[in-house]
Amino acid sequence: MRVDIITIFPDYLSPLELSLVGKARRAGILDVHVHDLRSWATDRHRTVDDSPYGGGPGMVMRPDVWGAALDAVRALGPVGGSATLVIPTPSGRPFTQPRAQELSASPWLIIACGRYEGIDARVAAHYREVMPVIEFSVGDVVLAGGEAAALVMVEATARLLPGVLGNEASAPDDSFAPGRSGAALEGPVFTRPPVWRGLTVPDVLLSGDHGAVARWRNERSADRTRRMRPDLVGPGYPDDKVLPLAESEEW
Ligand code: ADE
Predict the structure, then answer these.
(1) CB-ligand 1 contact for 137 (6 Å cutoff)
(2) Structural domain span for residue 79
(3) CATH number at residue 120
(4) Measured from the CB, is residue 138 less than 6 Å from ligand 1?
């Protein structure tokens, strides 16, 4: 998979050299290119933004600079190559595990990282005519720009590419993996030592009974999902069973 990321802060993307994503790059599974948006600015100050039409606070990123950047980056790919344009924005649709799976099936992503109040809306409208364009939010929270969201999306997508995870069996067990409905969140995990600061590991995990372990894990997972994310369990789940954040909990 090829990923091109356009940003005014190329250094922000340097964590993509580390860990699992860095390894996938070195293994030739993932081909990441980071571009500085300012190299397509045309004035002496390399301006990429301007004040919003209609007034209001902040600045908006200029469509002419983004257009030049996106045309140039699209031309880098294979002729007729089918890139998907991903625009991180808090006003996009939620980026979720099924969305990461969909992205991991694309041969080529171009991620356009906005800053300030965002990118002039005509950019998404224009490129929608020639390629798939998806605006994604990584959570109901406002970041200072799309770069941190791009890191999230690239990591979530890259670990699903064949050959990236050490243990190929682990992706289907992930929290939010399809088929975990009602038990979307993974439950607690334990390792040695069996007693740590007076806290013991649940007996069932030491029993060697694989069926009992699977049932226990499923119960813990379903219970945790109900408590932490009643929104994932379905409408009408009684709010009074949802613990306040600070309350201490059993596994
Ligand atoms: N840019 C700023 N906030 C964002 C968010 N929550 N998701 C994606 N991009 C963003």
Answers:
(1) yes
(2) 2-158
(3) 3.40.1280.10
(4) yes
